[in-house]
């Protein structure tokens, strides 16, 4: 992930049109008798055709090569804040435009001292009026504050025809882990004063997907009621470079590219002095037993596909009802692109999942 003007990890909804994706070969030689004990494989460089099995709109998103950087990123607090402003301002404008286009209202509130947005579709069917969908946004735990946090919430409110509460949790550099979890838990405690927990879902994508899982682990620790259902979209469930597709989909994913560079820097900034394998930071290492029914989303080219698959497997092994949707050809979170029909398909599936598992 490079500078914000070029980094798709910072701008997961913008992809510049090109016509081929180059997979850079990773050539690693195993040395017998040294510290290297894991077998490795060397593959030749190759080009990747754009799949014809997706919509023309999605093909335009899939075709471009990743154009970020894997250079080590070191930023001062002020440099981080400048980078965040540069990313958030256009994202906020896009969210405002999307809300207008979809006839969704967005109103600012404060709940338990936390800034939130109440997002409502133009009409809510009777069967959804006692339901609430609580949203925690993505953005590498660093980006997309304020109105920039609401894009996914707007899409969910529109497709699920249900009210959404989007939490604008505090983030680094001023507020590293565990402040985001603390903010989400504080809002949850207030939400369940007015809503039956079984009527409420919790959802998010990327860092928001990871935070969704971490918040539920924390709710379990506090013996608080859990949501009725979850959606964890391509969750950043392991902030270390652990898992197959951190390597097999490196540079294949044209949104994130690689963990190395700015994405790694964001992980370090968020975790601070904490071990990144702590379950509340990387929830794939946590106890997922007793979780609510969960739907997970990813794509075949997603850098976080293994993050998603590993969470799905652990949920199943813990006896949790869990559905996994993997979309053809998609890099990280490309189902959020409203101009592609795959967006409606993805959110339609999530809406059906919530409808099946939430009480009324």
Question: Would you write up a description of this structure?
Answer:
By secondary structure, the chain is α/β, with parallel strands linked by helices. The chain has one domain (21-357): Rossmann fold (3-Layer(aba) Sandwich), CATH 3.40.50. The chain contains 9 helices and 10 strands. The protein has helices spanning 56-62, 77-101, 151-160, 179-194, 207-221, 245-248, 262-271, 305-317, 341-357, and strands spanning 21-23, 46-48, 104-111, 114-121, 132-136, 164-167, 200-205, 229-233, 294-299, 322-327. The strands form 2 sheets. Strands 3-4-6-5-7-8-9-10 form an 8-stranded mixed beta sheet, sandwiched between helices. A two-stranded antiparallel ribbon has the order 1-2. Helix 8 (305-317) links the parallel strand 9 (294-299) and strand 10. Helix 3 (151-160) packs across helix 9 (341-357) and helix 4 crosses helix 5. The protein is globular, with a radius of gyration of 19 Å. It starts with 20 loop residues before the first strand and ends with a helix. Mean pLDDT is 91; it is low at 1-35.
The multimeric state of the shown protein is single chain
- Within CATH, the superfamily carries the name Alpha/Beta hydrolase fold, catalytic domain
Let me know the average pLDDT.
91
Number of strands: 10
* Helix content bin: 25-40%
Largest beta-sheet characterization? 8 strands, mixed
Order of strands in the sheet with most strands: 3-4-6-5-7-8-9-10
Structural class from helices and strands? alpha/beta
Please, how many domains? 1
The global form is: globular
Class, according to the CATH hierarchy? Alpha Beta
SSE order, as H and E? EEHHEEEHEHEHEHHEHEH
CATH topology: Rossmann fold
Gap between N and C termini, in Å?
Answer: 42 Å
The gyration radius over C-alpha positions equals 19 Å
CATH architecture: 3-Layer(aba) Sandwich
